[in-house]
Each structure stands twice: as structure tokens, then as C-alpha cells.
Design goal:
By secondary structure, the chain is of the alpha/beta class. The protein contains 11 helices and 17 strands. The strands form 5 sheets. A 7-stranded mixed beta sheet has the order 11-10-9-12-13-17-16, sandwiched between helices. Strand 3 and strand 4 form a beta hairpin. Helix 10 runs parallel beside helix 11. Bound molecules: S-adenosylmethionine. It catalyses: L-lysyl-[protein] + 3 S-adenosyl-L-methionine = N(6),N(6),N(6)-trimethyl-L-lysyl-[protein] + 3 S-adenosyl-L-homocysteine + 3 H(+).
């Protein structure tokens, strides 16, 4: 296969598009005949020093990266998010505060555009088993603990977007690594987890992560990614459980014949212990956004404890003929939901929404564009005795 040209109904994540190298390691075809690629995402942390200090989750505070993060091991080559097998690599550029200086892609096609194929084309390199060593060779100084390996596809129809890694997952993963204390020992549920990257990072700190999405093919890929990174989870004792959770269904599938269904014990553990809900880049279609928020509300009403939902979203600007202007309708719909949640009154739960300042350090390499946002929703039981409480009420069900 020399070249894939994307059809107009396929989408390609910027994470896979804007890589410094033109080579991608295709490892197999998935159950649907789509080429699957393997990317390595460099983790700019010094995991050993965190473990040594007993500060897995550690002593760091807001504004300060975990011990040794970012500045250590800069001798190892760095790659952009999915810059998988660049033999030459890129040297880490750190500013005077030790923050990562990300090499930005050119703003427009111009003389500064790197040479290579046009952006609608990708040239996969199909390697034989022996050539797989390319992966091992490209960063010889790098410990396996400083790399997360993710299998993904490169371009998909919209219904398969979960098979790619999206920038929001990297932003969320960065936030998890920055706020390790928040995740330490917790039970976490991720909605629309896709390739599972954020769930895997969460499980380096959390105790149990329910990594959920829909579709046996996608969930199998996710399960594979967890196996590929088991060494990252082992020492922390974190566990990732891949499960099907469809926002368009009210219940969790318990049919043991169905792959990735839930056992009664899992469901009881999920509701009894979960305190953090995650979702990255799941707000791109208004109907699905409605379904995600209804799912969040439904889950929050079933959880025994108060919980915090952490959501990443990319504000995508589009020129529409209908408006003859640049709009961001999917983002506006997302924000309308946040407002609606905050305005809810008289229910059993109170929802408080807060934007997260996305200036925390980057431990994964990607372009943290201004349009990438992180939001928190705090969900607490209403304790004011003067508020009449309808215990059965789930406002959006
Ligand atoms: C843009 S992808 C984001 C994937 C991943 N969170 C990331 O950021 O890389 C959106 C995800 O939502 C999932 N999704 C779409 N509809 C869903 C549904 N009805 N129930 C559960 N997940 C759904 C997709 O399968 C996909 O994994």
C-alpha cells in the first residue's frame, strides 16, 4: 500500500496528521479491515523519582510539575504526540521555567511548510517483524516507563472516530498527571474512551478505571492498548476494566454473552466507589452531546458518593453557509448544557461548573492550542433541608 487518500467523509485527528515524520508503523488490519498503526507517546516524567520519593501523586502543588517531570531525561528524543518512529527525533526545548516549548506546525501552507505529501494523504510504512526494531532503536535512552504505546487507525468515518487519538485525550492525560493527588487510589469512569489513552494514564494513579465506549472492535483495540501498557500500571496497582457503556441506552449491558458487558459485582463497585468521571472530545454532535450529559446526570444520581466530572473539549470553528460566518455550534451546544446543569434547582443533586486554566505543564507532546478547554463539574447532594427533595428525580431522563 503506497498511499491512502482520505475520502471526504473520513476524518483524521490532528494528533496523527501533524507529526514531524511521514512514517507510521502499520501493525495489522483490525476486524473491519482498517489498517491499525502503533504510535508511541513520550511521557516527559521521571517516573522513578516519583516512586522513589513516595510521591506518586506526590508532593507537588498547583503550578509545580511532579518531581522530576519535564526537565529530566531530555537527552532522550522527543516526538510529537504520535510521532512514532522518527529515528532522528527532536530535542526537547525547555524555556527558562522548565516548561516545554512545543514546536508548532506551520499556520498556513507556505514555503515554511515541511516538505512531504499533502495533508490529505498519508504514507503508511508497513514494517516486517524484524523491522519492528525501529521502534526499539529510536530512543535507546528511553525507559519503557516513559512511553505509552497506542494502537489506533489513521483516518475513519465519523462513526469510528474513537479509533484515533484526539488532542483532548492528551490534554486530559496531562491534567491527570498534573493532579495526581486528585486521582490517587480513586475509582474513575471514562466515557467515550476511544483508544483508552486517558484511562491508561489515569490508572497509573487511580485504583480502578472503568474505561468505556461502544463497539466490540473499538473496545478490543482499547483492551489491547491496556495490555501494551501493563508495565505502566503494574507498580501502582491500578487496574483498567474495559466495558461497554452506550450513552443511548439507559442501562448497562449485563448479558455475559456480550463482549465487554458488566457483571453485577462490577456495577455494584462502579456505583459504590466512583468519584471521578472523565470524558475527552465527545462533544462534536449535538445529539451525542445531549446523550453524554443525560448519561452523566443518570450516573451521578446512581453513584453513592459526590463526584467530579472532568471534560475536555476543542472549540472547533467552522464557516457555515447558513450563517455566512464562522461559528462553533457544537461547542455552543456544550456550553449551553453546562449552563443548564448549573441552573438546575429542586433536584437531589447540585451541579457546579468551573473552567480549568489549561496552563498546567505538558508532560505529553502535542499542540495545546487555545481552543482546547477543560471543564469540571462538581456534583454534590443537596443538603439544604429547606429545599424540597424529590429523591426519584433525574432531570434529564
Ligand atoms: C472523538 S472520539 C474521542 C475518543 C477519545 N476520548 C479521545 O479523545 O481520543 C469520541 C468517542 O465517543 C464515542 N461514542 C460515540 N457515540 C457513543 C455512544 N453512543 N456511547 C458511548 N460512546 C460513544 C466514540 O466511540 C469515540 O470513542
Amino acid at each position: 500500500m503506497d498511499e491512502i487518500t482520505f475520502r471526504s467523509d473520513t476524518v483524521l485527528s490532528d494528533v496523527h496528521l501533524y507529526t514531524p515524520n511521514q512514517r507510521h508503523l502499520m501493525v495489522r488490519l483490525n476486524g473491519m479491515g482498517q489498517p491499525v498503526f502503533l504510535s508511541q507517546f513520550k511521557l516527559l516524567w521521571d517516573r522513578d523519582s516519583q516512586t522513589d520519593s513516595g510521591a506518586k501523586g506526590g508532593d507537588h502543588t498547583e503550578g509545580t510539575p511532579p518531581a522530576g517531570a519535564v526537565c529530566s531525561r531530555t537527552g532522550a528524543s522527543l516526538q510529537a504526540g504520535a510521532g512514532t518512529i522518527t529515528p532522528e527525533g527532536l530535542e526537547a526545548q525547555l524555556d527558562e521555567d522548565g516548561d516545554l516549548d512545543v514546536v508548532r506546525r506551520p499556520r498556513a501552507a507556505s514555503a515554511s511548510e515541511p516538505p512531504g505529501p499533502p495533508r490529505d494523504k498519508v504514507h503508511p510504512t508497513i514494517l516486517t517483524q524484524e523491522e519492528d526494531d525501529v521502534l526499539g532503536d529510536e530512543a535507546p535512552e528511553s525507559s519503557p516507563y516513559n512511553v505509552i504505546k497506542i494502537e489506533h487507525t489513521m483516518a475513519t468515518p465519523l462513526e469510528d472516530v474513537g479509533k484515533q487519538v484526539w488532542r483532548g485525550a492528551l490534554l486530559l492525560a496531562d491534567y491527570i498527571l498534573f493532579q495526581r493527588d486528585l486521582f490517587q487510589g480513586r475509582t474513575v469512569l471514562e466515557l467515550g474512551a476511544g483508544t483508552g489513552l486517558a484511562s491508561i494514564i489515569a490508572a497509573t494513579v487511580a485504583q480502578t478505571v472503568y474505561c468505556t465506549d461502544v463497539g466490540a472492535d473499538l473496545l478490543a483495540m482499547c483492551q489491547r492498548n491496556i495490555a501494551l501498557n501493563s508495565h505502566l500500571l503494574a507498580s501502582g496497582g491500578g487496574m483498567v476494566k474495559v466495558k461497554e457503556l452506550d450513552w443511548l441506552r439507559d442501562d448497562l449491558c449485563t448479558d455475559p454473552e456480550v463482549p465487554f458487558s458488566w457483571s453485577k459485582e462490577d456495577i455494584s463497585h462502579l456505583y459504590g466507589h466512583t468519584t471521578i468521571l472523565l470524558a475527552a472530545e465527545v462533544f462534536y454532535d449535538d445529539d451525542l452531546t445531549d446523550a453524554v450529559f443525560k448519561t452523566l446526570s443518570r450516573l451521578a444520581h446512581k453513584l453513592k458518593n459526590a463526584c467530579t466530572a472532568i471534560l475536555s473539549v476543542e472549540k472547533r470553528l467552522n464557516f457555515t453557509l447558513r450563517h455566512l460566518d464562522v461559528t462553533c455550534e457544537a461547542y455552543d451546544h456544550f456550553r449551553a448544557w453546562l449552563q443548564r446543569l448549573e441552573g438546575l434547582a429542586g433536584g437531589r443533586l447540585r451541579f457546579a461548573v468551573e473552567p480549568v486554566d489549561a496552563t498546567f505543564p505538558q508532560l505529553l507532546v502535542y499542540e495545546r492550542i487555545q481552543q482546547l478547554e477543560l471543564w469540571k463539574i462538581f456534583v454534590e447532594p443537596v443538603t439544604d433541608p429547606t429545599v424540597s427533595v424529590d429523591t426519584a428525580s433525574q432531570p434529564f431522563s
